[in-house]
Amino acid sequence: MSSFDELIAFERETQALGQIAGRLGWDQETMMPRGAAPQRGEEMAAIEAVLHARRSDPRVAEWLETAKAPDETGAAQLREIRRAFERAVKVPGDLASRIARVTSEAQGKWAQARADEDVAAFLPVLEEVVALKRQEGQALAAGGNLYDAMVADYEQGTTSEDIAKIFDAMRPGLVDLRARVLEKPTPDGVSGSFDENTQMKLARKIAKTFGYDMSHGRVDKAVHPFSSGSGLDVRITTRTNPQDPFNCIYSTIHEVGHGAYEQNIGREHLLTALGRGVSMGVHESQSRIYENQLGRSRAFTGWLFKEMREAFGHIGISSAEAFYAAVNRVQNGYIRTEADELQYNLHIMLRFDLERALMSGDLEVQDLEAAWNDRFLADFGYPVDKPSNGCLQDVHWSVGLFGYFPTYSLGNVYAGCLHEALRQDVTDLDAQLAQGDTVAATGWLREKLQQFGGLREPQDTIIHAAGAAPTHEPLMAYLEAKFSEIYNL
């Protein structure tokens, strides 16, 4: 075997072990007994130690030195393997294992603290997570910007300064549009009690409507919806609320966007360094365009309105147009995952600034709740009422995902670019969506973007699909047009 072939074979086994680690995480969120958390932490630490040893194996450096890529795909595989190797050798193995152990335990403690509305119970383990992630960031940054090193784990080629510039450009327009919208009457929402089993049945139907392959996936419930896995085993979760069926429906569509991306990556990339979404920003572009530009469009909500009435009977709304307004209504709220399109990015900007301050040491963990509450009041104009609506609402920091939050808004920006290009190519898109037919839209995304996995760098992935470099302008134009029409601005 050539050096290239040996390296790819070794990488295939590493990827397979990574999938096993991911499955442990999925089980922890969906089916694991609550009392198993300490043991699961040990299990996660053990497999992370194996993975770290493989990723930093000296043989990888030797193979990379002599391997010759046979084609463009091979060159991209070498690029991604080299990136993972260079990252792995910077982080000591015992630190990687300790992070895996502590974040696994912290996840359970976060869930309990959130249920109990007890920030104090969570802060000690969060303090440990932050300290460990600072150590990791320092190792990765090698004297550079610590937070940039963390962002690079999720959106390579983008810095915190790049993100801040995008956010600074978007914020005035978002704040102005929100102010104009909130001066108008709020549309009525759905009303009644919505059976949770019926919600899950409808969620699975909608998942299939958006092309999610149930023979290679499943839909389960979790505290915090997520997608897990790639290739032939891609699982998603959602959540239910008997008073709010949209929580379930749109969490499902969102996660289907993630899951469909992974399912649609070319089989030739299975269990290789290219066999997953290229970045979290690009990943989020798929979940957001599925959820918002497609799933919350007037055309699709017309179809969904009929499905809702068939599933639940009377829902408190009597027309498709009123249902469209209900799906897209802008109102005060605390929860990022339940936020309307208009205000969602403001939630991300808050988290971006706070976690940058945590990582730099400008904000200490003990002061996080007060800092969150002060910032939320300043940004949204009303106070946080309880921790589960404030700094305990998201799982991300408990599992060490610092640098992840800004990719949600990058994904919105990318989705805006993709949606603009999609509508240029599929001129009868609304007519299809009105029939509950997403084949042309999801097929376009599969053909233009999803099938390639990690073949191209994130920015180049969007350029290839949308035909131009990404900018926030299509997203802002879309939001202005959509909400101006709904609210008669």
From TrEMBL:
Keyword set includes DNA-binding: no
Enzyme Commission numbers on file: 3.4.17.19
Pfam families reported for this sequence: Peptidase_M32
EC class: hydrolase
Reactions catalysed, as given in the entry: Release of a C-terminal amino acid with broad specificity, except for -Pro
Transmembrane spans: none
A GO MF term: carboxypeptidase activity
Keywords: Carboxypeptidase, Hydrolase, Metal-binding, Metalloprotease, Protease
Family: Belongs to the peptidase M32 family.
General function of this protein: Broad specificity carboxypetidase that releases amino acids sequentially from the C-terminus, including neutral, aromatic, polar and basic residues.
Protein name as annotated: Metal-dependent carboxypeptidase
Organism, as annotated: Tritonibacter scottomollicae (Epibacterium scottomollicae)
